[in-house]
Design brief:
The structure is a homotetramer of 151-residue chains.
Chain A (H helix, E strand, L loop, with lengths): L6 H11 L1 H4 L2 E7 L2 E6 L14 H20 L6 E9 L9 E10 L3 E10 L5 E10 L16
Antiparallel strand pairs in A: 1-2, 2-4, 3-6, 4-5, 5-6
């Protein structure tokens, strides 16, 4: 088993398709075993008291699993999030980056399930856990195939 | 059963404690049966194609349940999100506000469970479903109780 | 929109395919809006103290959503549970049947999402909430399409 | 950090409190890092085709996390399941035992979160993943402390 996109190719592709979103993230490591992704924490991710917000960690988990799907299936991959479950385990350290370690539990023809454990940078106690499920839409033959105009 | 904070009081209180966040939301209705909350969709909530992002809907569900907790328990309420499960059911309509209808399934001493169904404005087909669990931290008696000075 | 199988047909079909399991359940009502299904509580469903066990409520929610899928798609429907989330809200009443009220939030080509609220018989406070997701396996075009005999 | 109950003590205690349930399970390993628990698959756990049923895997995950809670907190521990999320990843091998590997992500004063990965015996591809949350009820001082009868 190998990667369709390596770390450099994937980073470039994400910058191409999600320029606004992806500048908040950095891929630290990527291989067939999984991904390590960092949320570059800024003020917009924080709640009063300096704690990283739940929606920011949701986005990190979502992006980490989407990145793994692309790394395995390539640029053409279509994938939409269909469900997620998250547990918030501890208060993240104030204003620290969040490090996500993601693995794929299943990479099926129509469903992908990824697991993500998140840590405040510098700590080994998880702050959150997430499972994200992506659906890969079936590729349909066009019902009315495009007709080439006759000259 | 009655509300500790009505719609007007709750809106004012949320503006006081979360001024940055709450300007993206509007409480439409609030009573003991539940809440209707609107996500005022702006560019920052959108993905390419105009669809509302998953993290934005997560935030809407989280804020809707938190608002219900405050409306029932009052300003002093401490509550932290401990878990969430979400299902993304349909692609939201492009650039439309999202309307959340939230109810509390349980308002216990230590746990609150809220259910939220979300719709694109103007549609009656749900785009997402969420359950958010909040923990109410136990109120501890002080370990060293304050000693009344003897006169 | 109409049902492929009505209550009587669905009950007969479930007895045919799951005779062991289905005798623990009764369909009370069934229409396009949803299902009401009863778990006929016996000793095997109980924990010490007479409370209905978590796995029994999981099974009730799973069967209720599966029954709705069959009622809409008919006997040929293939559907496998791919995920579930449950919240246990209150202790069920001792040795009372559990009544499940299920609705389908989404009936897509490849994914079905059903929501189930469960009550102890005679009470209107929910004891549990469940969301069950079923995957409908893709129907593959035959690898060697049938060849029309030439006359 | 150490265990309040080791494997032998825990097995004996579970047999004492859940004699009916626990004979379907065996603790293979137990330490502060987690538990390995086996579901001793019998006919009652199977669906047509020999596959292990969803409710049986739910029960395995629930028992595995409960056993970890007891092993850490001791016999007096009170803990009730408050939520679960599960993903069913692959069809289990026909009539094979299911092996669960459980770890505690959080062991707090009022909430415990455990993660469980399940495999068909002899395979290293997970068949299911579960997160179970347990609530530890607050210990209240008795409102009216028991009065010692005066002799």
């Amino acid at each position: 088993m190998s990667l369709a996109l390596n770390k450099k190719e994937l980073t470039a592709y994400l910058q191409e398709i999600f320029p606004e979103v992806i500048r908040e993230f950095a891929i630290e490591t990527l291989d067939v075993g999984g991904i390590t992704m960092r949320l570059l924490v800024e003020n917009r991710h924080l709640r009063p008291g300096g704690t990283v917000s739940g929606p920011s960690m949701f986005m990190l988990a979502d992006v980490a699993v989407y990145a793994m799907v692309l790394s395995r299936l390539g640029r053409e991959a279509l994938a939409v999030t269909t469900s997620s479950s998250m547990d918030f385990l501890r208060k993240p350290a104030a204003a620290q980056d969040i490090i996500a370690r993601g693995t794929l539990l299943k990479l099926g023809r129509s469903l992908v399930v990824g697991d993500v454990l998140m840590f405040s940078h510098g700590s080994d106690k998880p702050v959150a856990r997430a499972t994200m499920t992506y659906s890969i839409p079936p590729v349909n033959p066009p019902v009315n195939p495009p007709v080439k105009p006759t000259p």
